[in-house]
Amino acid sequence: xxxxxxxxxxxxxxxxxxxxxxxxxxxxxxxxxxxxxxxxxxxxxxxxxxxxxxxxxxxxxxxxxxxxxxxxxxxxxxxxxxxxxxxxxxxxxxxxxxxxxxxxxxxxxxxxxxxxxxxxxxxxxxxxxxxxxxxxxxxxxxxxxxxxxxxxxxxxxxxxxxxxxxxxxxxxxxxxxxxxxxxxxxxxxxxxxxxxxxxxxxxxxxxxxxxxxxxxxxxxxxxxxxxxxxxxxxxxxxxxxxxxxxxxxxxxxxxxxxxxx
Length: 261
Prior knowledge:
Elements lengths: L2 H21 L2 E17 L3 E9 L1 E3 L2 E2 L3 H4 L4 E2 L3 E8 L2 E11 L4 E8 L2 E7 L11 E4 L2 E11 L14 E2 L7 E3 L10 E14 L5 E15 L3 E15 L2 E16 L7
Antiparallel strand pairs: 1-11, 1-15, 2-7, 2-14, 3-4, 3-12, 5-6, 6-7, 8-9, 8-10, 13-14, 14-17, 15-16, 16-17
């Protein structure tokens, strides 16, 4: 073969080799993480509050500590926190003498093409003015992101990866709300949550907790797979005991298989 033909062939081979390397998984990029979020929301003041929401667990052992969720001993400066063992497994307990909800008034103003909300007094508030608004809800929340050893099990996480309640609840197969591939499966379940507080009969309270476990890697672009477990409780009026909240587990979201480490 002449040198004139050999050089172009060599360039093509190098290009193909580089392309395969670029689109193949990069082991240095492999990572896994757990993202836990907790939130409480109310539209009227609550007193003598105790709320317990589930923590992620494996074999009955919590995988997040109180100091992970509330490093300074309080939850967003609002609730005192501790991990408690219950008949339904480990839970995060949030307590406070008073969760105060105050009505706040705002008006929308615009200057130099930039709009913003400005706080105003109740006397200044005009319900007929479309640029005025009032808010009577208060939300407090936090999120904790933790790296872990790659890979984690995301297709069948219950019993292997952290989930709420583990296998202590009955999960029923249901339709997934978002488009999914063959690996994706969604489940609903009754999720016991403890709500205890004094409140007006019209007070509406929401408590939620969510865990997302993810694997990520670079293969010509960032990709990965994940699972999610969610619990959401809502109630009206005073409460003093366990309620059945709504639980939802989604497994097998993303691309499979995960590359071997």
